[in-house]
Specification:
With about 400 residues, the protein is of the alpha/beta class. The chain has 2 domains: about 140 residues, ATPase, nucleotide binding domain (Nucleotidyltransferase, domain 5, 2-Layer Sandwich), CATH 3.30.420; about 190 residues, ATPase, nucleotide binding domain (Nucleotidyltransferase, domain 5, 2-Layer Sandwich). It has an 8-stranded mixed β-sheet, sandwiched between helices. Strands 11-10-9-12-14-13 form a 6-stranded mixed β-sheet, sandwiched between helices.
Amino acid sequence: MNILVINAGSSSLKYQLFDMDNGSVPARGLLERIGLDGRVKHKAEGHADYEAEISLPDHASAVRELLGLLTHAEHGVLENVADISAVGHRVVHGGEHFSSSALVTRDVETAIESVAPLAPLHNPPNLVGISACREVMGDIPQVAVFDTAFHQTIPEHAFLYALPYEYYTDNQVRRYGFHGTSHRYVSERAAKLLDRPLSSLKIVTCHLGNGSSLAAVDGGRSVDTTMGMTPLEGVPMGTRSGNIDPAIIEYICSARGMTVEEVITVLNKKSGMLGISGVSSDFRDLYTAAAGDGENSRRSMLALDIFAYNVRKQIGALAAAMGGIDALVFTAGVGENNPDMRAAICGGLGFLGLALDGAKNAAARGESDISADGARAGVLVIPTNEEYVIAMDTRDLI
C-alpha cells in the first residue's frame, strides 16, 4: 500500500510517498514558490536527485507536478497514480472538533475552516492542499491528521486560561498545543526503547527546533503542554518570544508607536533567539558566534542560556504536573543534533533523577539512551517522524 503524505503551506507543498508494506519512503520532495516562479526538489530511490524551476501558478498545478514526478520514467517510482491508495494531510489546527485523525469529508473540511481564525497562516493552506488533491486525484481517500489532536486529552484545569469563562465558551480561547504528532511518536518510541508499557510511564517530551514545545505524557496521554492557543506561547524559540507578560504589548505599542498587529509580528518573527542575539534564529549560528569575541558573542551566549533555562524550567513544571518523571525525550532539529544544548538543559535536573552520560550524549546518533548509569529516570534522543505517523493514521482509517 502506497500512502502519499502532504504538508501544504501558503506557497509550498512538501511530500513523502510511503510504502506501508515495508515502511520505506521511495520518494520525497518539495514544491515551493507556488504562485510565484516555482521550484521543485525531488528525491527518489534508485534515481538521481532532480531539481528544476517550473511554473506553479497554484496548488493544483503543484499536485499535478508531484504526481508526474512520482510516475515519471526517469524520476518516478510508480507505474501510475492509481498505485496511490490514499493521501494523508498535516492539518495544524483541529480545535475541539478532533481528538484523532479523520477521513476527509465535506463536514470535516467545514470544521477545519471554522477554526481557521485560530491558525490563519496554516489551516487555509492545508485546506487548499486537500482541495487540490481532490481536483487532480478525484475520489481517492484523503485523511486529515491534526497537530492539536494528541493534546485533546489535556484536562480542563490545564487547558483553560484564567480569563472570563465565556471567552472559552463563546470564542474557544483555551490552550490547544501543537507538535502533537511528534510528541505522540517519540513517547511511543520511548516506551519501546525502555521496554516498558507506555501506560506505566510518565514522560516529558521536548520537541526543540526553530519552533519548540514540551509535553507531559502520562500513560500515553498528553496532560499538559507548553504551546497554547497559538504556537507563540511557551519557551523562547528561533524567532518567537514564548511566554511574556501580556501588558508588554500595550506598553510597546505606546513606547514605540506601534500597532498591536505590528507588535504581534515582532513577537512571532523578530523575537526569541534572533531578538536576543541580534545574530540569527539558527542555533548553529549562535554557537559559532558565541565562540567569538565582542557583543555578538555575549548576546549569542545569552540567547542560548535563556533557551536552556526556560526549557529546564518547563521540564520541572511538567514533571510536577504528572507527579514524577520516568523519561525525558529530546527530539527535532536542536533536540536531536545538539549535545551541548542537551547537556545545558539537563544540568541541575538531578533532583528529578535525570543525569546524562557525557560520552553517550556526545556520541548520540539516531535513537539513543544517553542516561548516566544508575540514573532513576531515562534520558533519550529519538528522531521524530511526524510524516510516518500521518501515513500510519491514513492507512488505519482507510
